[in-house]
Design brief:
The protein folds into two domains: about 5-85, no CATH class; about 90-240, Cupredoxins -  blue copper proteins (Immunoglobulin-like, Sandwich), CATH 2.60.40. The protein contains three helices and ten strands, in the order ααββββββββββα. The chain has helices at about 5-40, 55-85, 225-240; strands spanning about 95-100, 105-110, 145, 150-155, 160-165, 170-175, 180, 190, 200-205, 215-220. A five-stranded mixed β-sheet has the order 3-2-1-5-8. It starts with 6 loop residues before the first helix and ends in a 9-residue tail after the last helix.
């Protein structure tokens, strides 16, 4: 199942790569069997020091190199330029920050003003403020912070800035064809456009400690109306009693 706008291109590239690998596997397997039979000891009691005169293997290597170049130039590089380098217009995208830690995904929304509030490492508290959000900052008063729960609207690009509080993690949404390592000391942007509503699992694809197995979250993709209603509900809750909704799984 593919649930993102770019997923089809990822699947296409993977399909052609697997076809090439299958052809190479079968081809080299057949050649290996042929070599065992053709050059068996009973048929070649004396070593031939002249070697093979044919250049067939060289031609085959050239053909494989050409196919790999086509896959790279015609599929992989255009996809990289489109999906990795060409980010959507920030004004039309949903912006979210996700801060990884052992063993949870902290999700930070900027609220109705579209501005992320100030964070301070001194304010971090694993019980009720895992990202150190400074609620005294005017821009932070309507911010929404959740644990292991990511909510997005369907058919709208989202830009997620990934960072980590401790070790290397890897943000993975398999059905969205998204996977990005989260490196300590770096803020790494990744973007995609969900095309299907529903709930999808967020996994950590990098071994990050003894609790790695339980570091999972959930992405809920809403219709536009449902997402706006969810945002309104969360904004009201944040203003009335600003605290983190704990969704440990």
């Amino acid at each position: 199942m593919n649930a993102s706008a770019h997923g089809g291109e990822v699947d296409q590239a993977m399909f052609f790569i697997h076809i090439l690998m299958l052809v190479l596997f079968i081809g080299w397997g057949v050649y290996f069997i042929y070599a065992i039979i053709r050059f068996r000891r009973s048929k070649n009691p004396k070593a031939d020091y002249g070697g093979v005169k044919s250049h067939t293997s060289s031609y085959l290597e050239i053909v494989v190199a050409i196919i790999e170049a086509v896959l790279l130039i015609a599929i992989s590089i255009p996809f990289w330029a489109k999906q990795i380098n060409a980010f959507p217009d920030p004004k039309t995208a949903v912006h979210v920050k996700i801060i990884a830690e052992q063993f949870a995904w902290n999700v930070h929304y900027p609220g109705a003003d579209g501005i992320f509030g100030r964070t301070d490492i001194k304010l971090m508290n694993s019980a009720n403020n895992p990202i150190g959000l400074d609620r005294s900052d005017e821009a932070a008063k309507d911010d929404i912070v959740m644990i292991n729960q990511l909510h997005l609207p369907v058919n709208k690009p989202v830009i997620i800035n990934l960072s980590t509080k401790d070790v290397i993690h890897s943000f993975a949404l398999p059905l969205m064809r998204v996977k990005q390592d989260v490196i300590p000391g770096m803020s790494i942007p990744v973007w995609f456009t969900p095309t299907k509503t529903g709930q999808f699992e967020i996994a950590c694809a990098q071994l990050c400690g003894l609790g790695h197995y339980r570091m999972k979250g959930y992405l809920t993709v809403h219709s536009k109306a449902d997402y706006e209603a969810w945002l309104t509900q969360q904004a009201s809750a944040a203003q009335e009693a600003p605290q983190v909704d704990d969704f440990w799984n």
